[in-house]
Amino acid sequence: MTPGSSDRDVDNQIGQQKTGQAANPTHEDGPRLRDEGIRAVPGTEGQASATATARRTGGGGRGKGKGGGRRRKGRAEELMVPDATFTTYYGRQVVKATPWEADIPFYLFAGGLAGGSSLLAAGADLSGRPHLRRNARITAVLALSASGLALVHDLGRPERFYNMLRVFKPTSPMSMGTWILTAYAPGSVVAGAAEVARLLDVEKFLPARLRFLTSLLDWAARPGGLEAALLAPAVASYTAVLLTDTSTPAWHEAHRELPFVFVGSAAAASGGLAMVTSPLVETGPARLLAVIGATVELVVEHQMEKSMGFTAGALHEGTPGRLMRASKILTAVGGAGALLLGRRHRAYAVASGLALVAGSVCTRFGVFEAGQESARDPKYTVVPQRERLDARRAAEAAGVPTGAAPTSVRPGPPADDSQTTDPTVDHTPHPQEN
Q1: What is its main location (predicted)?
Q2: pLDDT tens-digit profile of 250-295?
Q3: How many helices (H) and strands (E) does the chain have?
Q4: How far apart are CA 155 and CA 104, in angstroms?
């Protein structure tokens, strides 16, 4: 204390703090929590630290209760530095999101519904269920038409679909999907047209010399329906392969399970819609297909989320998360209703069928939106790359050949130092790489 200074001056000197000095340099309240799993890129940490400190201290001071200077009980400890956020240079995305709009998820749903209905119609035809056969065939044609319209609308010009038929490329999911639809459509349309002609009794409106056309349609209906049923699994699953063949993180990381999820969803939707449109006495195969499809979808979807690792977060947050949760609830309720109550009363069958159809719609839109969100958020690109890079370096240090992927990390594209988009990565060559 200097001569002439007061007690208040001493208190002020003790309470003063240099600019930039940590508020708790000795960690009196314990070590500062850190998120060891995610590292931010430059320019993302340390922002709003004063605000975070104020929140931590309850407005800048310690609460005093009956215990004198003690901290109030029950107060939650908060981080002094806010959570890291991911940004990129100039605010540009690491992976560009697809320009697709709502036409594409509807196209995914309608295509699956068409394939599942064709398969169900073939079974009804062979087992002698005329109402179920008719309704399933007509559903397949309508769903195929809606799917084609959505695809052409997204393409912008109808001739673009025709131009894709000029190439046959087995390594391209888009090329193979185009040819699958082209091969599937004639049989499905013929079978559906025969049912519509019988339903409307078109023969009596035709001139006598053209009435043979209805007989020709009746003769071709079964072969056409069986041909469509053979291609139905490919129609229901190729759209999943089309999505997973992109660089969109949430779609690419689901490349093993997503086709099975789409097939199960298609089976549940087609079985559910047949339960709505057909008499109760003939809906046995539809209920069976719906229950099997719902079970496959829920089980494989759970496995898919586990195998996706960090990228599965895109399926749990925001709009995709709400859609996927609704899908699981609707599919589970619809499947249970079809199994337990679907045969007792038509009202139960209709309610269960509608729930299954709605669940399938939510699945397609949820997966689509999750992919778009994972492309917009750079963390879904950076973190998996860092994990693969760290795993490769650990394998090299352990003497494991770099071509063998560790069992704890999902196989994926190699993430070399030059391919890493995170600028915080140390690009110094590893000692074992020299």
Answers
A1: membrane
A2: 999 999 999 999 999 999 999 999 999 999 999 999 999 999 999 9
A3: 13, 0
A4: 10
Q: What length is written for the chain? A: 434
Q: What is the secondary structure of 27-78 as a DSSP string?
A: -TT-PPP--TT--PPTT-SSTTHHHHHHHHTTTTS----TTSSPPPTTPPP-
With b for 16 or more beta-carbon neighbours within 10 A and e for fewer, the 47-65 pattern comes to eeeeebbeebbeeeeeeee
User: What band does 412 get if pLDDT is binned at 50, 70 and 90?
Assistant: very low
Q: What is the pLDDT of residues 368-377, one digit of tens each?
A: 999 999 998 8
pLDDT in tens, 196-215: 988 888 878 888 788 888 88
pLDDT score of 18: 45
Q: Which of 161-165, 268-272, 273-277, 301-305 has the lowest mean pLDDT?
A: 161-165
Element (H, E) at 385: helix 379-397
Domains of the chain: 103-380 (1.20.1630.10)
Residue 203: Cβ within 10 Å count: 16
Helices 284-308, 346-376: crossing angle, 10 deg rounding:
20
Nearest-angstrom CA–CA distance, 363 and 290: 15
3-state SS, one letter per residue, for 10-28:
HHHHHHCCCCCCCCCCCCC
Q: Is 321 left (phi over 0), alpha (psi -120 to 50) or beta?
A: alpha
How far apart CA 225 and CA 125 sit, in angstroms, is 9
Q: What is the pTM of this model?
A: 0.71
SS (H, E, C) 93-113: CCCCCCCCCCHHHHHHHHHHH
Residues 85/86/92/95 CA torsion (nearest 10 deg):
-140
pLDDT attached to residue 112: 94
Residues 6+ apart with CB under 8 A from 388: 409, 412, 413, 414, 415
Give the max Cα distance, the chain.
125
